[in-house]
From TrEMBL, chain A:
EC number: 2.3.2.31
EC class: transferase
Name of the protein described by the UniProt record: RBR-type E3 ubiquitin transferase
Transmembrane segments: none
Keywords (A to Z) from UniProt: Metal-binding, Repeat, Transferase, Ubl conjugation pathway, Zinc, Zinc-finger
SMART domains in the cross-refs: IBR, RING
Species of origin: Apiospora marii
Catalysed reaction, written as an equation: [E2 ubiquitin-conjugating enzyme]-S-ubiquitinyl-L-cysteine + [acceptor protein]-L-lysine = [E2 ubiquitin-conjugating enzyme]-L-cysteine + [acceptor protein]-N(6)-ubiquitinyl-L-lysine
PANTHER family in alphabetical order: RBR FAMILY RING FINGER AND IBR DOMAIN-CONTAINING (PTHR11685)
Database matches in Pfam families: Ariadne, IBR, IBR_1, UBA_ARI1, zf-C3HC4
UniProt feature, compositional bias: Acidic residues: 1-46
SUPFAM superfamilies, per database record: RING/U-box (SSF57850)
UniProtKB/TrEMBL annotation, chain B:
Name the UniProt record assigns to this protein: Ubiquitin-conjugating enzyme
Ligase found in the keyword field: no
UniProt cross-references to Pfam families, sorted A to Z: UQ_con (PF00179)
Stored InterPro entries: Ub_conjugating_enzyme, UBC, UBQ-conjugating_enzyme/RWD
Keywords per UniProt: Ubl conjugation pathway
Ranges for domain UBC core: 3-153
SMART domains the record matches: UBCc
Domain of life: Eukaryota
CDD domains the record matches: UBCc_UBE2W
Organism in which the protein naturally occurs: Apiospora marii
Amino acid sequence: MDSDEDFLSTVSSDDDIMLDDSENDDMSNGDEFDDAFDEDPDDEPDLGLQKQKTPVAYDVGYKVYSPGDIQKQQEEMMNEVNMILEMSKEDAAILLRHFRWNKERLIEDFMDNSDKVVEAAGIVTSVANPPQLETLSEFMCDICCDDDEGLQSFAMKCGHRYCVNCYRHYLTQKIREEGEAARIQCPAEGCSRIIDARSLDLLVTPELSDRYQELLNRTYVEDKDTLKWCPAPDCENAVECGIKKKELDKVVPTVACACGYRFCFGCILSDHQPAPCELVKRWLKKCADDSETANWISANTKECPKCNSTIEKNGGCNHMTCRKCKHEFCWMCMGLWSEHGTSWYNCNRFEEKSGTDARDAQAKSRVSLERYLHYYNRYANHEQSARLDKDMYTKTEKKMVQLQSASGMSWIEVQYLNSASQALQTCRQTLKWTYAFAFYLARNNLTEIFEDNQKDLELAVENLSEMFEKPISELADSKLKVDIMDKTSYCNKRRLILLQDTAENLANGMLFDL
Amino acid sequence: MSLGTKRLGKELTKIQKTLPPGITLVKADDLQEWLLDIQVLDQNPIYAGETYRLKFRFGKQYPIEPPEVVFTKQENRPIPMHPHIYSNGIICLDLLGSSGWSPVQNVESVCMSIQSMLTGNTKNHRPEGDADFVSTNKARPKDIEFYYHDNEV
């Protein structure tokens, strides 16, 4: 762990780092980041101040939150705003969502001009009566035109009154069908009053209320740049990481969710160390280039510059509003729409440059096709092998049971097979991406070091893979067990060395031919 | 009784009696589909002397959900030229999408919005990518996600 300090102060002494890093090896791959992050402040008091800095060059600080944690965070912020600004929790919640959970800005703006803030967020401040259903005489609902005697109706503080039935239908439509929550407006035309949680509870079934809360929770995570959902299927956790978008060319912010899934915080793809996001994006696009689907996607879709959702434009003008994050941008140049002024239909900022860029890229890809295939075949091979190794992993458990009965070893004693299998998975994932990485790497003296690291890791992985596939009868041999354990540890070590090395070079501005 | 029955009944009673100038009811035999004709009354050379036919279709959720509103083409009833109207009659107007729709809007107010959208227009052309859109679009008008957001025309 001593080496951690070195990484922060001198980021380029490769050799020391390689040696020191070996100490970390016996930690399992999934947890090493967390552990390293948590332990550091104890070992080295100075680091306490630099908690946000990365202890190891390829490592980023992050935290995993359960749905309960997320709920609690929101409530804490609401309580805080509720106390500081002396308003109801419902109003605090609306304001916080309006400010995308930027509490400091909310308080500052509120102190500055509370009327303006309240108006913009859709809160009408008047006497703080709790919302309630009312029965008025001679009332007609403007939505259903019902005017029966005794018709129950509801209005928010804006005074637009509709019958309970219509209100309920309206809210159900918004929540169920359109997935809206934080920004549901009053049904009246042009009224920007936003429905609050208390009014909603009064109007809809508890089941719909739950759904509303769920959607609200989601907007909290989606609104905050430092939070992202774990993309693993059925995982409800969110991960917090302070990485900035502009740092993504220098860091590959890989995080491991509590569910075990490892992904990149920058682009939400599965672990792609050591390749930076931009490179991964290009590589994947390139690899998919020849399929019809990919052609269609590249011809018809773009990604939202803010949240990366894939968007198909199936009509309309160049003014796009991302359905998910509400980011407004120009379809032509992908720039902010607000910078476009009144030139609604034509974005002349892009045309000229796009033409030349596209032509350049085309020429380049033709020339480098052969080179590309070299890297692609190796990339695809590791992907394929990783899949096969994964099949193997499902068989590992069976293997371990068999081995237990064949050799009389205990459950604990056969865990080395599990470790070996996990090491194979992780290392192949890394190896796969080293080929995409190498494809774009500009040739210089660093390239050679990188290729050596890559070669060492590849050799180790293939060796381990071979041992791992031996029949049970041979696995029972205690010498092979020791060999496998050694090789597993060696593979993990080589992987960390490679990651460390590339991460440092990235941070120092490694050159790519993109 | 479905949600919109009473409301549509009232709307129909009203527009059978009176409608703003330039808007006429053509057919409303049931509460699913209505036809209305609209004309641009100002001296806008693009639309002078023409009558256009609008088709309204009401879903089960009307008026919570917007109606589907398109221009339909037939003899003497062309599709008006407008940078927000495709040649198959589909209209890109935010108030016809779920995010711009308010349940307080009605057939009459929609007709008036479309009428004024034509009145104010000076551009005698179709939306960009019209041919493409018309040949490939299979979505229902209200499922098309991106509408024109500018209100200048």
